[in-house]
Amino acid sequence: LGALAADPLLGLGRSMVEAIPDLIVLALIVTLTWQALRLVTRFFDAVRVGRLSFHGFDPDWARPTARIVRAAVVLLGLVMAYPYIPGSSSEAFKAISIFAGVMLSLGATSMIANIVAGNSLIYRRAFRIGDRVEIAGVLGDVEELTAQATYLRTLKNERVTLPNALVLGSQVTNYTTLARSDGLILHAEVGIGYETPWREVEAMLLEAAARTEGLMASPTPFVLQKRLGDFAPVYEINAYTRDERAAQATLTRLLAAVQDVFAERGVQIMTPNYVSDPAQAKIPPRPA
């Protein structure tokens, strides 16, 4: 009985002694891979904070590029280490490896798609943290962009999570990119009857824009005649603002100014619908 127990133990001991050179090589590969990962992290951290710079390389690209390079280093380390793993040549080990690979590929399809989409969004510079954007019908400020999802905080103080694959396939409207340099155009439509000369209407709309706090004097506001309706031409006042975060409040002030100016001039606004000429014009009373 002792001999029967001793033979397996001796075989196990011989296997462990024979595996020592492979374990040394494996430890060396792990150490080199770990050091390479630290070097990659420190290098791209320096690029991200501006200590290192390269022409044409945006600092915002440092984080996703670091993730890609680290993944490549880990993959290379695994490929180099695989032959030295004890038991890696056995059929059981190979079967388990194949099974794990199949399960990972099936379960991580959407995750990988989101990661690829997230990196693509950063390289395309569609938006940055803090930008006001509209994505898939959601308007808000970009709070966070992770490997899996983009997080927006809406004007109603809601936190919305958008998978990066959805963001990549949707139209992205960025209100911040040019707002602080060229200005963001705010616009409002109004229908005024044909009995009011169009030159007077344009003058009143420009006056309303001039009264509105938050709008830029240069570039100057302008008026477009959008269409000739059945009962009234439709005019559109366009004016610039640099503060995209206050755009909704500024537009509210512009609409209020339009109503005030037309009421002061005794001109009736005929939108959204017109039925007939009332006995008395629909003009709000002047404040006392």
Task: Produce a short descriptive summary.
48% of the residues lie in helices and 17% in strands. The protein has 288 residues and is an alpha+beta fold. The protein has three domains: 2-107, no CATH class; 127-174, SH3 type barrels; 184-264, 2-Layer Sandwich (Alpha-Beta Plaits), CATH 3.30.70.100.
What would the keywords be for this entry?
single chain, alpha+beta, SH3 type barrels, 3 domains, 3-stranded antiparallel beta sheet, 48% helix
How is the secondary structure organized here?
Blueprint: H1 2-49, H2 62-81, H3 91-107, H4 109-124, E1 132-135, E2 138-145, E3 149-154, E4 159-163, H5 164-168, E5 172-174, E6 184-191, H6 198-211, E7 222-228, E8 233-241, H7 247-264
Antiparallel strand pairs: 1-2, 1-5, 2-3, 3-4, 6-8, 7-8
Helix pairs in contact: 1-2, 6-7
Beta-strand segment tally? 8
Distance linking N and C termini = 113 Å
Topology pattern, helix = H, strand = E:
HHHHEEEEHEEHEEH
Structural class of the secondary structure composition? alpha+beta
Query: What strand order characterises the main sheet?
Result: 4-3-2-1-5
Q: Could you tell me the mean pLDDT?
A: 83
Determine the strand fraction and express it as a percent band. Answer: 15-25%
- Assign an overall shape: elongated
Seen as an oligomer or otherwise, the chain set is single chain
Our count of helices gives: 7
Largest sheet: 5 strands, antiparallel
Which radius of gyration do the C-alpha atoms yield?
33 Å
Low-pLDDT parts are none
Number of separate domains: 3
Helix % is: 40-55%
